[in-house]
Design a protein that fits this description.
Elements: H1 2-7, H2 10-15, E1 24-36, E2 41-55, E3 58-71, E4 74-88, E5 100-107, E6 112-119, E7 126-134, H3 138-143, E8 146-157, E9 162-172, E10 178-191, E11 196-207, E12 220-234, E13 237-250, E14 253-266, E15 274-282, E16 297-307
Antiparallel strand pairs: 1-2, 1-16, 2-3, 3-4, 4-5, 5-6, 6-7, 7-8, 8-9, 9-10, 10-11, 11-12, 12-13, 13-14, 14-15, 15-16
């Protein structure tokens, strides 16, 4: 079902969502690096070309990527090609409540890969999404095991300073294990003028068929983190940071410490060109073989749009 939902976006991607009027073209270099406690490393490096780009919400183009997955004594490299596009529904003036869509559909020569989302903006943001990717472990790469993730998220303003976010999702590991996700965040704008917030981030998931496939899949896992977040816009430059500490527990282990750290930067837009950088650390287990004892996961992401 999830694969059909993703494949069903193909017509939307190819049709595009941008008018040629006042459009530019753009190159889009992108890099994603990640490392985990099992010694697994992921490197995805690619470049896109938007042959029509009207603004940040209307574009269509292609993307080519080299993905390398490696670990202790193993590695795998593959090339991928995607078609991708974005647009909005309706012809009237866009507001926060207008629905936007984005889609990225491609292949590594063996199967369909990509993602799609339908969302609004603003304080009461709503989103529907679907993703399909290779399981980034040695066993997953060897078996060409896919992971499909479909879900919905909503932001709910509670008052001038309080808001909450909820997410529900289903993650299919294509090995009879279906993971059910629940996430919830509570945010208090402690110093709005300074961009400082206090957050409670919680997450829980349950595996329908635990311990399959050589990746971390206990019967259930849960965590709660207290987080301090900072977001500042200075001269058009957007800076953000977050740090948190809390507790995590699974069906197999007693409660232990959980931590995270995130930083990010986004440049001002100049003639539709911009740069975005993000990096982070967490000791929350992901879909790897480990999860017991000490765990760590690090990532670095760079993406940019160079319009011409």
């Amino acid at each position: 079902m999830r694969m059909r939902l993703l494949a069903g976006t193909a017509a939307m991607v190819l049709a595009g969502g941008a008018s040629a009027q006042d459009a530019t073209m753009a190159l889009r270099p992108e890099t994603l690096l990640s490392w985990d406690a099992d010694g697994n490393e992921v490197r995805k490096t690619g470049v896109g070309w938007d042959w029509v780009r009207t603004d940040r919400e209307h574009w269509r183009g292609v993307h080519v990527e080299q993905a390398r997955f490696s670990g202790d004594g193993w590695s795998h490299t593959e090339q991928r090609v995607y078609a991708r596009a974005a647009g909005t529904f309706g012809t009237g003036e866009r507001t926060d409540d207008s629905w936007r869509w984005q889609a990225k559909l491609g292949s590594n020569g063996h199967t369909v890969l990509g993602s799609a989302s339908l969302h609004t903006e603003g304080a009461a943001r709503r989103e529907l999404f679907v993703e399909r990717e290779l399981l980034e472990t040695e066993a997953g790469v060897t078996r060409r095991q896919m992971v499909d993730f479909v879900g919905a998220a909503v932001d709910v303003p509670l008052s001038a300073r309080w808001s909450t976010t909820g997410l529900v999702g289903l993650q299919d590991f294509s090995d009879d294990n279906l993971r059910t996700h629940l996430r919830g965040n509570l945010v208090f704008a402690a110093l709005p003028e300074a961009g400082l917030s206090l957050q409670l981030r919680t997450r829980y998931y349950r595996n329908s068929d635990p311990y399959l496939g050589g990746y971390y899949s206990p019967p259930w896992y849960g965590e709660a983190l207290g987080v301090v977040g900072l977001r500042r816009v200075i001269g058009g430059h957007t800076w953000r940071a977050a740090a948190g500490i809390g507790r995590q527990r699974s069906a197999d282990d007693d409660a232990r410490r959980a931590r995270l750290a995130e930083v990010g930067y986004e440049s001002p837009r100049w003639r539709q060109s911009w740069l975005r950088v993000a990096a982070g650390y967490t000791d929350t287990p992901v879909a790897t073989a480990s999860g017991a004892g000490r765990y760590s996961y690090r990532y670095l992401m760079l993406e940019s749009v160079v319009a011409f």
